[in-house]
Amino acid sequence: MRKVILEVDNLVKTYKGKEVEIEALKGISFNLYAGEFVAIMGTSGSGKSTLLNVLGALDEPTSGHIRLNGVNSEDFFVEPKATDYRRENIGFIFQAYNLLKDLTVEENISLPLLLKNESKETIDRKTANMIERMGLTKWKKHRPVQLSGGQQQRIAIGRALIGDPPILLADELTGNLDANTSSEILDVLTSMKKELNQSILVVTHDSKVATYADRVLFFHDGKITNEYECSGDKDLEKIMKISQDILKGANE
Ligand SMILES: Nc1ncnc2c1ncn2[C@@H]1O[C@H](COP(=O)(O)OP(=O)(O)OP(=O)(O)O)[C@@H](O)[C@H]1O
């Protein structure tokens, strides 16, 4: 039986403004399994970023539960526990890389281990290993600005993975990259998935990204309206068709 890493159970998020309430998530439930790559696609404003924020304990849900490795989320959302939860459990990857510009490649990648107070020996060994895995050895003393977009995203992936987080959350990780570099980054991600049995959740507008996933969840109006099991590149047309249908339905 496949091991469940993340259980999302009836998640609701309501933003309360002075005049209006916006129900961004209207009861989202799904499981993420060990070593599974799930892509989330959907209409604009359908709640994808809200979901990532809640899963990353950057925002608190109005109701519902998250269980990560069997641990209930009740306490995740209150500081300082939220910071501990993020540090121990989540690797984040963003569209804009979010690297520290004054730090070198190796300093950026090693940061999560420094924050975890790991020993110098462990930090040096794990960082050198991750830099090599990401193909960045030649550039380890460079600053991010001296590197290409694809190389910067590889720094971000290395930084996200170095602390062995149970899940990786990515928001439009190829949004700033051209088609070739996007494929290269997705190849890096899928090889890490296989090597480390890494569980990955990616929010994307790009159907190509979804073809690298094992499963695609389609969001519309705060709900999961469709789910699709993938099996490689040949599914691109089908994924594009489903996402176009959802967008068409949303505009009718
Ligand atoms: N901080 C906030 N306060 C109030 N409303 C918010 C807030 N963040 C998001 N929303 C609203 O919640 C809904 C879902 O937004 P969200 O950003 O999660 O959608 P999305 O699917 O990520 O959209 P996109 O694909 O355009 O990035 C939208 O109606 C949005 O306006």
From TrEMBL:
Q: Which Pfam families match?
A: ABC_tran (PF00005)
Q: Tell me which residues make up the ABC transporter domain.
A: 6-246
Tell me one GO molecular function of this protein. Answer: transmembrane transporter activity
What's in the keyword line of the UniProt record? Answer: ATP-binding, Nucleotide-binding, Transport
State the SMART domains in the record: AAA (SM00382)
Q: Entry's PROSITE patterns?
A: ABC_TRANSPORTER_1, ABC_TRANSPORTER_2
Q: Name a single GO cellular component.
A: membrane protein complex
Q: Which CDD domains match?
A: ABC_MJ0796_LolCDE_FtsE
**Would the keyword Glycoprotein be found if you checked this record's keyword annotation?**
no
Question: According to its UniProt record, which protein family does this protein belong to?
Answer: Belongs to the ABC transporter superfamily.
Mind telling me what this protein is named? Answer: ABC transporter ATP-binding protein
Origin organism is Planococcus antarcticus DSM 14505
